[in-house]
């Protein structure tokens, strides 16, 4: 079963309430929210007030991807805003175990995101504590980029590592009908897509990804 989490980075920012409602009606499983700070990645996006304002418009889980430095300083704010799952990058926090523990203690699921150049062995001592691994198949910061084929090997390797764990293996970046098929074949069970979903009929595009 494939979980689809549309990224609202590609949505109409002037009409996010209706966009989220339309995604829910179209069969999305989650809403992916990319949080960028202009330091770890070269862009600025959503903060807790935006997420809080959107929370009342859908029952779908909010899958919040923190692409920010020192996420431990902000996790509580995103929890209070309505995040259900928070994903962080190992490169952004000095005490990774402690930050994961804080996410879990606030009642959320915890995810770890791997940049295209982040090795999989960074998960060796935390894999039993996380709920999601997010493979970035582009360099994060902007939507609409092309899929990096080398990440298929990483997905395949991770699928083997978590074969006995109840962990979501997600892929984000350049996901369309063709690359979705490649990712599913490699072992991914969650796909995050922005521009592909928003360029057509949402229900049709989500169905094609599944």
Extract low-pLDDT stretches.
Answer: none
Average pLDDT over all residues = 94
Kindly provide the radius of gyration, computed on alpha-carbon positions and rounded to a whole number of angstroms: 16 Å
Helix/strand/pairing class, anyone?
Answer: alpha/beta
Number of strand elements: 8
The coarse silhouette is globular
Along the chain, the helix and strand elements come as: EHEHEHEHEEHEHEHH
Largest sheet: 8 strands, parallel
Cα end-to-end separation = 8 Å
Structure at a glance:
The protein is an alpha/beta fold. It is 32% helix and 19% strand. It contains eight helices and eight strands, in the order βαβαβαβαββαβαβαα.
What does this structure look like?
With 210 residues, this protein is of the alpha/beta class. The chain has helices at 16-25, 48-55, 75-81, 96-105, 151-161, 177-186, 195-198, 202-209, and strands at 3-6, 31-36, 62-67, 85-88, 109-114, 132-136, 168-172, 190-193. The chain has an 8-stranded parallel beta sheet with strand order 1-8-7-6-5-4-3-2. Helix 3 links the parallel strand 3 and strand 4. Helix 2 packs parallel to helix 3. The protein is globular. It starts with a strand and ends with a helix.
Q: Keywords for this structure?
A:
alpha/beta; 210 residues; 8-stranded parallel beta sheet
Detail the topology: elements first, then pairings:
Layout: E1 3-6, H1 16-25, E2 31-36, H2 48-55, E3 62-67, H3 75-81, E4 85-88, H4 96-105, E5 109-114, E6 132-136, H5 151-161, E7 168-172, H6 177-186, E8 190-193, H7 195-198, H8 202-209
Parallel strand pairs: 1-8, 2-3, 3-4, 4-5, 5-6, 6-7, 7-8
Helix pairs in contact: 2-3
């Amino acid at each position: 079963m494939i979980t689809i989490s549309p990224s609202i980075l590609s949505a109409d920012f002037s009409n996010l309430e209706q966009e989220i409602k339309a995604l829910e009606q179209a069969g999305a499983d989650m809403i992916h929210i990319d949080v960028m700070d202009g330091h770890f990645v070269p862009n600025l996006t959503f903060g807790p007030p935006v997420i809080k304002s959107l929370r009342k418009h859908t029952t779908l889980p909010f899958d919040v991807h923190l692409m920010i430095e020192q996420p431990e300083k902000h996790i509580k704010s995103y929890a209070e805003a309505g995040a259900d799952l928070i994903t962080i990058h190992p490169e952004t926090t000095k005490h990774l175990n402690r930050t994961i523990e804080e996410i879990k203690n606030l009642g959320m699921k915890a995810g770890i995101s791997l940049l295209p150049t982040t090795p999989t062995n960074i998960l060796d001592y935390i894999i039993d504590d996380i709920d999601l691994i997010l493979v970035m198949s582009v360099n994060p910061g902007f939507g609409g980029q092309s899929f990096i084929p080398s990440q298929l090997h990483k997905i395949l390797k991770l699928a083997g590592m978590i074969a006995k764990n109840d962990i979501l293996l997600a892929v984000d970046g350049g996901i369309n009908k063709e690359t979705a098929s490649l990712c599913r074949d490699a072992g991914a069970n969650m796909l995050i897509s922005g521009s592909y979903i928003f360029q057509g009929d949402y229900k049709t595009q989500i169905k094609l990804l599944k």
